[in-house]
Specification:
The complex is a heterodimer of chains A (404) and B (233). With 404 residues, chain A is α+β, with helices and mostly antiparallel strands. Chain A is built from 13 helices and 14 strands. Chain B is globular. In chain B, helix 6 links the parallel strand 7 and strand 8. The chains are: A alpha+beta (404), B alpha/beta (233). Chains A and B meet through helix 1, helix 10, helix 11 and helix 13 of A and helix 2 and helix 3 of B.
Chain lengths: 404, 233
């Protein structure tokens, strides 16, 4: 019996009971639809995260102190205090792959303006910081090299701090108190938006030199932000940084570095992995409904075999072999699940559109997830169709013909 | 010795059904030979084993012991799939309750045996149409089985039995569900088929009216052949 003819026979058999066929396929329709929609949400989140990162610049590198080891005991990451502003300067001077650097000294404290106060992050940074981070100034200016060198008490406000302290009032030229020390506001930053739980705009920038002497009381720096000349040379730039710092820190060959260099790609990979886990989780939950749909198919196919025992008997009496009957019912189950799969794709793509339209979530339907869901639906058909089909094929022709 | 003239040769066929501890001997040793082109009837009261015998002859069932040659081929030892092939190519069945596929057109019912043979879709259609014509149902091809009368249903069943050019037609109470007049019509169809194409017909019945059409009548009782009568026509 040829496959094409068997498919025809299966379609006819399914067409005889359209309502039941539709309800049986509904399990698969919803299952496939859910898988595609859920995976599209996960993919959308992933792409959004990736877009955020590339917005920040793919040429970014971060230098942080390594973990200090004292008599066999490791401190946490960043426990070395060997990074200095001279290190930062040496990086720009000694490598043609490095464009800008910004030594960072961060803290968190209460800030006060008039009768309002706010707890926020204080970033002590270099004057190239906005260029490194691709961050535009909204009003006023960012502090200059000379203001950094002389450790002036000036600050630039993130948009959230600006809103909270000044509530729409013009803030440039005003004086706010950070740890009771007066700072003059010389500029405000454009909003960067929230990434995850914390807002990037809840921050105040001051010269790192001021942060070292006035706020934190250290003479090293906590980290260095570096931008390579372009996004393609970050790996080489990383090697340059390591080389320069090892020489400056007099680290013997083979000894452990007292610093870590990571580029944006590393960090991006980590974030992508997290969203990948989200995708797998959502897809996994949705595939349970696909499984349930498969059980529905098995159930209906078993009923169908019982209902059609006479038909099976007739087919056997005119020469259908076991294989022919097996194939007929198996193909019926596969056709059922693949039809469900196709409609499910329509449902999944449609609902992911609706989700991004009305829930404002980024979604992304990939060809891969469509193909995967469709193949999965097909294998559900084979897996759950096999038992009823085998049962049908094992019937005895005489018993089947006599069955009432 | 012209063995070639035998279409069916049964040697000491027995069939025992085992149900738990009970054993039922349905056939207790049947030996019989049917010549090619014969039209014979098997009669007997219910429980005489005539259905079992028909199942064995029709290759739907295997005998417990004994040998069965169909067209000189030993078929009593073949496996299920080979038996299906034999049924497909060499035997046509006509049942008392028609056994047509419901909600399916007459034509598709007749096509069924060819679907399981290696015949192209085009040839399948042509041969099914020709077979329907042979049984006088031209123009009824697209009628669904539930739109047909009892006599028409049985004609469709006969067309289905004929379509793959079998050498043997087995009819199990073919007139059992029909009124007398329609029954006679159906028997005339068998008769004309037998006379025109020389096909071997084995009828299983308990209706004496049917046996009128047979050349020989075998009486079965308690799993054995009681007697065999040649009808003078």
């Amino acid at each position: 019996m040829k496959i094409l003819r068997t498919i025809k026979v299966a379609l006819k058999a399914l067409g005889r009971n359209k309502m039941r066929t539709f309800l049986t396929a509904l399990g698969i329709i919803i299952g496939v639809g859910a898988v595609i929609a859920m995976v599209s949400i996960g993919q959308g989140a992933k792409e959004e995260v990736e877009a955020r990162f590339s917005e920040m610049g793919t040429n970014l590198l971060f230098v942080r102190p390594g973990s200090r080891q004292f008599r066999g005991r490791h401190g946490g990451g960043g426990s070395y205090d060997t990074l200095t502003e001279e290190d930062a300067k040496a990086l720009v001077e000694n490598s043609d792959l490095i464009q800008y650097v910004s030594p960072n000294v961060n803290t968190r404290t209460q800030v006060i303006y008039a009768n309002k106060n706010w707890n926020t992050s204080i970033y002590g940074v270099g004057h190239h910081y906005p260029l490194i981070r691709n961050w535009e100034i909204d009003e006023g200016v960012f502090f200059s090299e000379s203001q950094v060198r002389s450790g002036q008490k000036v600050c630039v406000l993130g948009s959230e701090v600006n809103n909270n302290l000044f509530e729409g009032m013009y803030s440039i030229g005003q004086v706010i108190r950070i740890k009771k020390i007066p700072f003059r506001v010389i500029g405000t930053m454009k909003s960067k938006g929230a990434s995850g739980w914390f807002s990037q705009d809840d921050v105040i920038f001051i010269p790192y030199t001021t942060a070292q002497t006035r706020l934190v009381g250290i003479d090293h720096v906590q980290s260095i932000d570096v931008s390579a000349v372009n996004g393609k040379v970050t790996a080489e730039a990383q090697e340059h940084i390591e080389e320069i710092l090892r020489i400056r820190h007099k680290i013997a060959p083979g000894a452990e570095d007292d610093f870590n260099v990571r580029d944006m790609a590393d960090i991006q990979e980590g974030a992508s992995e997290a969203t990948q886990v989200l995708t797998i989780l959502l897809g996994g939950i949705a595939s349970i409904s696909l499984l349930v749909g498969g059980i529905g198919i098995m159930n209906i196919m078993l009923v169908s075999v019982t209902e059609r025992i006479r038909e099976i008997g007739v087919r056997m009496s005119v020469g259908a072999r076991e294989r022919d009957i097996l194939l007929q019912f198996l193909i019926e189950a596969i056709v059922l699940s693949l039809m469900g799969g196709l409609l499910g794709i329509v449902l999944g793509v449609g609902s992911s559109r609706l989700i991004s339209q009305f829930a404002g979530m980024e979604t992304s339907v990939s060809m891969g997830s469509i193909l995967l869901a469709f193949l999965f639906a097909g294998s559900v058909g084979i897996f759950f169709g096999f038992y009823p089909a085998r049962k049908a094929s094992k019937l005895d022709p005489i018993d089947a013909l006599r069955y009432e | 010795m012209s063995e070639n003239n035998n279409i069916i040769k049964l040697e000491n066929i027995t069939k025992t059904y085992v149900m738990g501890e009970n054993k039922l001997d349905a056939l207790k040793g049947i030996s019989y030979t049917i010549k090619r082109g014969a039209m014979i009837a098997i009669m007997g009261p219910s429980g005489s084993g005539k259905s079992t015998l028909m199942n064995v002859i029709g290759c739907l069932d295997k005998p417990t012991s004994g040998t069965y040659y169909l067209e000189n081929e030993l078929v009593s030892k073949l496996d299920k799939n080979r038996l299906a092939g034999i049924r497909n190519k060499r035997i046509g069945f006509v049942f008392q309750n028609f056994n047509l596929l419901a909600r399916t057109s007459a034509l598709e019912n007749v096509e069924l045996p060819l679907v399981y043979s290696n015949v192209s879709a085009k040839e399948t259609r042509e041969r099914a149409q020709k077979a329907l014509q042979q049984v006088g149902l031209k123009g009824r091809e697209d009628h669904k089985t539930n739109q047909l009368s009892g006599g028409e249903k049985q004609r469709v069943a006969i067309a289905r039995a004929l379509v793959n050019h079998p050498s043997l037609i087995l009819a199990d109470e073919p007139t059992g569900n029909l009124d007398t007049k329609t029954g006679i019509d159906i028997m005339e169809v068998f008769k004309s088929l037998h006379e025109k194409s020389g096909i071997t017909v084995v009828l299983v019945t308990h209706d004496p009216e049917v046996t009128v059409y047979a050349e020989k009548v075998i009486h079965l009782r308690d799993g054995l052949i009681e007697n065999e009568k040649r009808r003078e026509t």
